[in-house]
Design a protein that fits this description.
Number of strands: 12
Strand order of the largest sheet: 2-1-10-5-6-7-3
Distance between the termini: 44 Å
CATH class: Alpha Beta
Number of domains: 1
Order of helices and strands: HHEHEEEEHEHEEEHEEE
Shape: globular
CATH architecture: Alpha-Beta Complex
CATH topology: Fumarylacetoacetate hydrolase, domain 2
Radius of gyration: 18 Å
Number of helices: 6
Helix content: 25-40%
Structural class: alpha+beta
Largest sheet: 7 strands, mixed
Length: 268
């Protein structure tokens, strides 16, 4: 990276940190520092995540965003985007979050995978069978995100900023891990979301990249392409099976992921 580009990346990452610490509404990044390419956007993300790690802990996993063609079309990208998960923002078991800690809380309903083996960088793309063999457990998961009140109508012009902003991730809540997940057809798995006991959405595993393992495969190959990889113990959340929800204080969400079980999130 050229010195000028490196300075631009640093400035963009620090701008994002200031925006988040002040809990400012989502705003367009100044043109003088905004990423000009997807490669530069990921460089900003890496720097932003490294700065955020001081408060939120080390990176312990990854997420995929824009895992459906409809979402990619909305923001004008031909590919999903990846984000990174911090240790102190990943909770195992039913959890509670405070709405006031977010500009606007967003929750998605996903299948999580815990890796049991490394998938190191390599030139040959990983197959779905190879990534499946490296999975130790699967579980229902909420992604917790903060869009800070973003105007979704403008996302088509802000896709690189979304990438730089770690795809808005602010953590994950995990249900109990299921080691014998291979007994189940994850593509056909039925996901159901409830808010305060009322059904508010339904989807299937196939609604993310055609199969949750296809989403995991994409993450593995994306990381390999960036000379990184998945490591044993990493968590990957594989994209929402249904539309995002915007819970308020007092709401309780429940996600039932078929044979994988359920997980709950309370918002105070």
């Amino acid at each position: 990276m050229r010195p000028g580009d490196a300075r631009r990346v640093q400035k963009a990452a620090r701008w994002l940190v200031r925006q988040h610490l002040a809990r400012l509404p989502s705003a367009r990044m100044p043109a003088a520092i905004a990423p000009r390419s997807l490669t530069q956007a990921y460089a900003v993300q890496d720097t932003f995540v490294a700065l955020k790690a001081e408060q939120c802990g080390a990176v312990v996993g990854h997420k995929i965003a824009l895992s459906s063609p409809q979402m990619r079309a909305m923001v004008g990208l031909q590919t999903p985007i990846a984000g990174q998960l911090h240790a102190r923002q990943v909770v195992a078991g039913d959890a509670e979050v405070r709405a006031a800690q977010y500009g606007r809380l967003v929750v998605e309903f996903e299948i999580g995978f815990r890796m049991a083996a490394d998938l190191p960088p390599r030139r040959t793309p990983y197959t779905q069978e190879e990534v499946a063999a490296a999975v130790g457990a699967a579980m229902p998961a909420f992604e917790v995100a903060d869009d800070r009140g973003a105007d979704y109508a403008t996302l088509a012009t802000r896709a690189l900023e979304l990438t730089a902003d770690n795809a808005w991730n602010e953590g994950a809540v995990l249900g109990a891990p299921v080691a014998d997940w291979r007994r189940f057809d994850l593509a056909a798995l039925r996901g159901r979301a409830f808010a305060n006991g009322t059904l508010v959405g339904e989807g299937h595993g196939a609604d993310s990249m055609g199969h949750p393992l296809a989403a995991l495969q994409w993450v593995a190959n994306h990381l390999a392409g960036r000379r990184r990889g998945l490591r044993r113990g990493d968590l990957v959340i594989s994209g929402s099976l249904l539309t995002s929800k915007f819970p308020k204080a007092g709401d309780t969400l429940r996600f039932e992921a078929g044979e994988l079980g359920a997980v709950e999130l309370r918002v105070t």
